[in-house]
Amino acid sequence: MTLQFDHFVHLTPDPTKAAEAFQKLGLHAVQGGRHENLGTYNTLSYFDLSYVELIGIFDEALVKEAGSVKYSLRDTFIENNLQSGPQRIALRSDNLQELAEHFKAQGLEVNGPTDFSRTRPDGTLVTWKLLFAGKQDESLHLPFFIEWDEKDNERLEDLTARGVIAPHTLGDVQVDGAAFAVRNIEETAALWSTLLQLEKGASYIDEEWNSKVQRLSLQGGDIVLYEPLGKGVVADVLEAGGERLFALQFKGATQKVEEITNALYRFV
């Protein structure tokens, strides 16, 4: 069971304006498409096959209907009262059925795999499967899981040919990792490394954010857990909204932290 970082989901009132904010930073961003049966649409910014999904709502009723699926992305939207900001990350698998059986054996509730699609601006269809897993009353949601119907090399070739994947004027920027604020870093790292079968990476102190840090290693971008040592950004996140995903970190360029509709984008 091998997982890779796939994408970071950022709910925003206007994905086009959010994409323009990315472009002002020197990050390539394009129109994505519409999830016709789910009530959402998106713009995208790719870093190889890891990407940011800037997602907006065009039909709240459809979102709420889709949100009835437990542990789903739109369930998270509803739980967060449709507020802008980071929502979840998706991890990529080439065998969601095997992953579902693994999670069931670990005592998790599982929904899926289920087929999904969206229509590109040119009318072509993109298809994939999703898997959602979790436990009742968990304070920090697991990532959700995606299996694309195209192989990675096929997607990379196709997205490059379409201009969706293209160089960033800011430089050779890559995803470093997705940042989660947690109350007990050892406990969360132990649980997630077991459930997701990930190796623990570097552990260190982040002085700028006044936090302990534990990485879980993933190709395409790590899971980066932060536990506050005192006052600071991470403590503020926990106080405002509890344990949650709050930022995406990039590497390959020097830039100050940018906040775009309640999401932090940090260059490390």
TrEMBL record:
Domain VOC positions: 4-147
Annotated protein name in UniProt: VOC family protein
InterPro entries, sorted: Glyas_Bleomycin-R_OHBP_Dase (IPR029068), Glyoxalase-like_dom (IPR025870), VOC_core (IPR037523)
Pfam families in the cross-refs: Glyoxalase_3
Xref: SUPFAM superfamilies: Glyoxalase/Bleomycin resistance protein/Dihydroxybiphenyl dioxygenase
PANTHER family from the UniProt entry: BLL2707 PROTEIN, GLYOXALASE-LIKE DOMAIN-CONTAINING PROTEIN
Highest taxon, organism lineage: Bacteria
